[in-house]
Fold this protein.
Amino acid sequence: MVARRSGLIGGSGGTGRSGRARWWRAAGAVGAGALPCLAFPAPALWWLAYVALVPWLLLLRSAPTARRAALEGWLGGAGFIVAVHHWLLPSLHVFLVPLAALLGLLWIPWALLVRELLGGAPAPGRAAAALLLVPAGWLLSELARSWQGLGGPWGLLGASQWQVAPALRLASVGGVWLVSLLVVAVNCAVVLLVAAPGARVAAVASVAGCAVLTGVVWLWLPRPEVSGVLRVAVVQPGLVDGADSGEQRFAVEERLTADLPGTRPDLVVWGESSVGADLAARPDLARRLAELSARTGAPLLVNVDARRSDRPGIYKSSVLVGPQGPTGDRYDKMRLVPFGEYIPARAVLGWATSVGKAAGEDRMRGAAPVVMDLPGGVRIGPLVCFESAFPDMSRHLVDEGAGVLVAQSSTSTFQHSWAPAQHASLSALRAAETGRPMVHATLTGVSAVFGPSGERIGAALPASASTAAVYEVPRARGTTLFVRFGNWPGAASLAALALYCAARGARAVRVARPAPEPSAPPARTARG
């Protein structure tokens, strides 16, 4: 009886220790998943991205079961989403947690792949497969959450390299997707170097291959050919509060623009929601804008956030205004911010408006992208706020002939967070991907301009500053490989994963098929 009781006590202690270990692993997965957020602005520790996944990878490869790896992949993915989007808490409040839990599911296939390919002591062949397929699995999760209905492509790992010139050159070849693949491949190589001595040759070869690829692209790929300069004035009114904030903001923008005539701009850009009334319903505002255009000698690209007078609903629209008034060039925002500008499945999730700053009324969507013509033959492609995160939208505009990309944005709701700096950094990637300069104009900062290789042009306008600045924006000719071929790294990753799954399936069928029974030898008959 004593022995039996001791056994029970010992078993209970073992179970307790095992339970505590599982809890520590779960907490570690959340923290490890959140770690890469430090590579993005505002901390902008870009170099950290190349090792930030290592703790998470080490945890997943040591998972005792596939079920445990799936759980830790899910928890790490949820931690990553919360960390990268933590500035949404004032708007979504507690709703950010279930949203992160939902998106975290996208990392489960990747976690299973990590355990299978990096677990144990991988042979050189399995290590080589891991260095190709684990980055492809990560990219699969990025592609899935880049769908606008799941929040859009915010926080893609490759976007952390927005200020690294060689990475921007890679973006011109395969977009931000190619940069993500390279970053994850380096993380996998570091894991093999640390934890799998037998696979170190493959790991070193992988790092060398990434370096050679980057060097070849840097040295041999043609750079955008500069073909002139466009003088662009960015007007940033700064924080304006109060019951009549719309009218006050317009007055500040009007004053800042009126001081520009001596600077001879070719285009003046105001930020998102810079005009709070439909210009057809407010001819007085249209007249004041036309007068500003005549005084500065340049068209104004403003952004109207208002209920339209010619159709039902509220639109966010980029409108070009010349000395005679609106020119007729108008772009209505197509991709809206979930919860900020519309509530997905409002009949089910409409309660979100009671716990955060979610949209009380859904904005209406535009039908198609628009390329606008400026005097002198320059063509601009406008995007509104959140749309600058989508590589396919800027690629389409350039393919349609846009020579300069313009993003009109407002992050005033998240003014004292990492959001303004993160948002501005996306324009560097869109510029590098397309080989076209990009102007990022905001109401309250950060406003910034980037050249056709993703390089910064002039000084950024900091958050909360109320000012206007003129930038010498270099125009460029030529077509990048990303504009020509699109997201080919994503297609290649999907193909590689499909081939791997097919090979695994074929192997499973061969193992499950029973071996044929040996046939009996032919009977011999005795002859007399």
Observations:
- DSSP finds 16 helices and eleven strands in the chain.
